Amino acid sequence: MTTPNKTPPGTDPEQLEKTGTVREIGSQAVWSLSSCKPGFGVDQLRADNLETYWQSDGSQPHLVNVQFRRKTTVKTLHIYADYKSDESYTLSKISAKVGNNFHNLQEIRQLELVEPSGWIHIPLTDNHRKPTWTQIKIYTLVEESAIGKFPRCTTIDFMMYCSIR
């Protein structure tokens, strides 16, 4: 298991985008969830508001499925989580899988979150630090809190390079 990269407090994807080196590409994808409580679905997960969130409402695994319409270069996954606000609802493990269809998904990152606070930056690069080319990304939120409550996820963003050579 790997540990996610953490940026200094206050560094969010919007600030990173202002540097001109990356851009958010989540809006180019089709999003779906394994389950959600009414009023806590994709719209709340994708809202540019840290007060809204997705909350699952079913048995494990809890899935966030993200499918790009065409092959896309993806550099980083950003997840906002705050243990102090969410306590027992905070995600504890995440698995990132990529592929060109649902039949050839391969896990490229698995990580454990221990009382996360703020933006978590997860590189989606290969061993040579090259970004991932993919059509489908599935983020499996593998495990809920130790108490067994349904996990909450506030925001997920994807970043890619602004210019690809």
What do you see in this structure?
This is Anaphase-promoting complex subunit 10. Component of the anaphase promoting complex/cyclosome (APC/C), a cell cycle-regulated E3 ubiquitin-protein ligase complex that controls progression through mitosis and the G1 phase of the cell cycle. The protein has 165 residues and is mainly beta. The protein has a single domain, classed as Galactose-binding domain-like (Jelly Rolls, Sandwich). Helix content is 9%, strand content 45%. It has three helices and twelve strands, in the order βαββαβββαββββββ. The strands form three sheets. The protein has a five-stranded antiparallel β-sheet. Strands 3-5-10-7-8 form a five-stranded antiparallel β-sheet, with no helix packed on it. The protein has a two-stranded antiparallel ribbon with strand order 4-11. The N terminus is likely disordered.
How do the helices and strands line up, and which of them pair or pack?
Elements: E1 5-6, H1 13-18, E2 22-24, E3 29-33, H2 42-46, E4 54-55, E5 62-74, E6 76-82, H3 83-86, E7 93-99, E8 106-112, E9 117-123, E10 132-143, E11 152-153, E12 155-161
InterPro entries: APC10/Doc1 (IPR016901), APC_su10/DOC_dom (IPR004939), Galactose-bd-like_sf (IPR008979)
Domain DOC: 1-165
GO cellular component, one term: anaphase-promoting complex
What's the alpha carbon Rg, rounded to whole Å? 15 Å
Side by side, the strands of the main sheet go 1-9-6-12-2
Strand content: 35-45%
Please give the largest β-sheet.
Answer: 5 strands, antiparallel
Structural class call reads mainly beta
Number of domains: 1
CATH architect. name: Sandwich
CATH topology: Jelly Rolls
Q: Which word captures the global form? A: globular
Percent helix among the residues? under 10%
